[in-house]
Design a protein that fits this description.
Layout (H helix, E strand, L loop, with lengths): L1 H18 L5 E7 H7 L9 E8 L3 H15 L2 E7 L1 H5 L4 H8 L3 E5 L5
Parallel strand pairs: 2-3
Antiparallel strand pairs: 1-2, 1-4
Helix pairs in contact: 1-3
Length: about 110
């Protein structure tokens, strides 16, 4: 039973815990197929977890943390990053798509912020 809970809900708590102390991350979201399944959308089991970090932070440290989290979660953690200005704009197709789909906030403010 604990494996099922870790597999289903673990990424959320593990990523929240791991990235909470990464300086200058203003907001972080899980997005993509894992967020969609967590939000109740039907589909195949996600093979990885997509993570968006917003802010000016040490990218090498973020990737190091993601690697550690991948080992704990048992799925690859794909880190994407945007500046705060990029996240606020609606001009980037990536941002438009993200904001139109399920995202799970793990750190910071609401999806519009």
């Amino acid at each position: 039973m604990s494996e099922v809970v870790l597999y289903s809900f673990g990424p959320l708590e593990i990523l929240r815990d791991k990235f909470a102390d990464l300086e200058s991350v203003t907001v972080a979201y899980i997005f993509g197929s894992w967020a969609a399944r967590y939000s109740g959308e039907q589909g195949v089991d996600p093979g990885d977890v997509d993570l968006l970090l917003v802010g000016q932070f040490d990218r090498s440290k973020a990737f190091e943390i993601a690697l550690q989290a991948s080992r704990q979660v048992g799925k690859e953690i794909n880190v994407n990053n945007l500046s705060a200005d990029e996240w606020k704009t609606e001009e980037l197709g990536f941002v438009k798509t993200l904001k139109s789909r399920p995202v799970i906030r793990i750190i910071g403010s609401t999806p519009s912020g």
